[in-house]
Amino acid sequence: PARSTLWSVMASCAVRSRFDLVNLKASVLAPIIEALPRRIGVLGGTFDPVHIGHLRGGLEVAEMMGLDELRLTPNARPPHRDTPQVSAHDRLAMVECAVAGVATLVVDARELQRDKPSYTIDTLELMRAEMAADDQLFLLLGWDAFCGLPTWHRWEELLQHCHILVLQRPDADSEPPDALRNLLAARSVSDPLALKGPGGQIAFVWQTPLAVSATQIRQLLASGKSVRYLVPDAVLAYIDAHGLYRASN
Ligand code: ATP
Q1: How far is the CA of 48 from the centre of ligand 1 (A)?
Q2: Does the C-beta of 54 come closer than 6 Å to ligand 1?
Q3: CA angle, 199 as apex, 98 and 159 as ends, to 5°?
Q4: Fewer CB atoms inside 10 Å of the end CB: C or N, the chain?
């Protein structure tokens, strides 16, 4: 079981127990749990804005995979796409609003602090350098992002640092290029829970299919329509308070 699961079992034992014995067990087991490899997920994106496709998908995968944390990492200057419509500051603030109070989902703003394009390989290298050798790192990619992988900077090195988890994307019908077909043949495993070691393999994960995109949300807002229920209420409140994405912007 993942460290997070063991910790919650331990915490409930410690709270419920009136016996020192259980607390003693907790103190003996705590260092053992701490020594287990960590399981960290990374979901990068423009988050222009963050929406339920990112959040619900990310949370379901984090729970299914028993991740200790899933890091949402907003891109600063995405190399492969148009400049985001709103500032990095606003995109970050919306992601922070969205995950407030959800222990497993954390915001990692390191790409916004770099004064160069957001290359995922750089982020993974930095994260790896902070982790123990046997910690597991999982890069989450929607199917559309996965299909675009061969255009990414140093993409063939990504699996040296992480496993890749591919999320279904019902609103995207991209075809994988040949380079990816070959990679899938060599590196994919059918059961994501069977991914072994710190990285190197690819698995497809099931999450509730949500055909929601940030493009759709920007279009709805620009045409004066509501995006309620497509983004968390706190994100909607931020968009309204700052007049983001409306036609006048
Ligand atoms: P845009 O419409 O502006 O291109 P987006 O909705 O695709 O934005 P991104 O921030 O570009 O959002 O996506 C970040 C990551 O989240 C990518 O890996 C993408 O495939 C994935 N993703 C986005 N929306 C969904 C969704 N509805 N279901 C599953 N994965 C998603």
Answers
A1: 9
A2: yes
A3: 90
A4: N
